[in-house]
Amino acid sequence: MSLKGSCLCQGIRYEIETELDEIIYCHCQKCRKANGTAFATNAPVLIQQFKWIQGENLLKKYQSSSTTERCFCGVCGSPIISIKSDTPDFYRLRMGTLDTPIQTRPGKHIFVGSKAEWETICDELPQFNERPE
């Protein structure tokens, strides 16, 4: 199975060669700022299974910390992936950019210790104050 995704303006398109294993809700302040929402919904994807189909040249990168580079469309601003130096074989895919329906569902919340004070988590998924080991 392959999954397809794109940015809002359709300038960037990508394909993933496999189903996703894990989806995580991240509530850290940097994810909130980068996505303009209460949390980011991300999934790790092996770089070797990720392929840029169109518009890789439109991708802009921002070094948001010493270990994280955030990549987004330079035209419409859609966040696409982040790259973490401590997991060099993986991209962290922004789930909202997928166009293909999937079966995988989120499995946990991380960084809930710094979640937005106005947010209420309304599910029974495991919650971690930081990133679990």
UniProtKB/TrEMBL annotation:
UniProt domain CENP-V/GFA: residue ranges: 3-119
Keyword annotations from UniProtKB, A to Z: Lyase, Metal-binding, Zinc
PROSITE patterns in alphabetical order: CENP_V_GFA
Alphabetized InterPro entries for the sequence: CENP-V/GFA, Mss4-like_sf
Keyword Lyase annotated: yes
UniProt xrefs under SUPFAM superfamilies: Mss4-like
Highest taxon above the source species: Bacteria
Pfam families assigned to the protein according to its UniProt record, in alphabetical order: GFA
Similarity field: Belongs to the Gfa family.
Protein's name according to its UniProt entry: S-(Hydroxymethyl)glutathione synthase
Organism: Acinetobacter radioresistens SK82
Taxonomic classification: Bacteria, Pseudomonadati, Pseudomonadota, Gammaproteobacteria, Moraxellales
